[in-house]
């Protein structure tokens, strides 16, 4: 079967046009006064911890975009498999990242959009699932993406999400962003091995998070 690329888009209509809802927990933490302002000095990021069956320590990297509009997460060995010779524990793989975001003084950021890309080989009767949720540590608000795939399918997949509500980081200069990602494969009544992956060795495979900037 020839390989094909599928783009699955889920956009909440009111995402960026709606008035901002910012659960910052009280005036003492500060709040953004405006959105879409000119990008300030550079953001720096550091992976504090990576845990899970899909990202052993040192196998996930986070890199800020050159124009500071967001950052990319790349995984070295993140793959779920089912059927054939795959072990039962390989059907579900997950990665939990804690990323320290250093934000320039007087500014704050929210995750406005997320773009997920990977590859899959699903036999007839098999299904796959990609799920990601992310939130600022200490915040009550977060966002998630949940997308299912059905075989037969072989090739690249991508999903794109716009946050229905912009959850800004408290204005504290540093904040931890938690990113939890899961890949799951169910072989169903198929024969042979099916897989879903987000491995950097497979080319343009990554997660891209785009910032929305605001003044504190």
UniProtKB/TrEMBL annotation:
Residues 1-30 form the signal peptide. Transmembrane segments: none annotated. InterPro entries: DUF4360. It comes from the Bacteria. Keywords: Signal. This is DUF4360 domain-containing protein. It comes from Actinoplanes sandaracinus. Pfam families: DUF4360.
């Amino acid at each position: 079967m020839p390989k094909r690329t599928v783009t699955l888009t889920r956009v909440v209509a009111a995402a960026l046009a709606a008035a901002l809802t910012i659960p910052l927990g009280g005036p003492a933490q500060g709040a953004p006064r405006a959105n879409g302002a000119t990008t300030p000095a550079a953001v720096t990021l550091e992976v504090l911890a990576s845990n899970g069956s899909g990202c052993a320590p040192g196998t996930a990297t986070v890199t800020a975009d050159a124009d500071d509009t967001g950052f990319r997460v790349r995984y070295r060995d993140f793959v779920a498999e089912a059927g054939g010779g795959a072990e039962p524990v390989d059907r579900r793989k997950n990665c939990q990242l804690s990323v320290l975001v250093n934000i320039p003084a007087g500014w704050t950021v929210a995750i406005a959009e997320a773009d997920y890309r990977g590859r899959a080989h699903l036999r007839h009767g098999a299904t796959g699932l990609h799920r990601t949720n992310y939130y600022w540590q200490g915040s009550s608000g977060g966002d998630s993406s949940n997308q299912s795939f059905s075989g037969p399918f072989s090739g690249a997949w991508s999903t794109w999400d716009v946050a229905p509500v912009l959850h800004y980081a408290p204005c504290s200069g540093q904040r931890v962003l938690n990113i939890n990602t899961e890949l799951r494969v169910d072989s169903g009544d198929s024969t042979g091995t099916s897989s879903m992956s987000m491995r950097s060795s497979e080319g343009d495979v990554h997660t891209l998070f785009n910032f929305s900037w605001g003044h504190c």
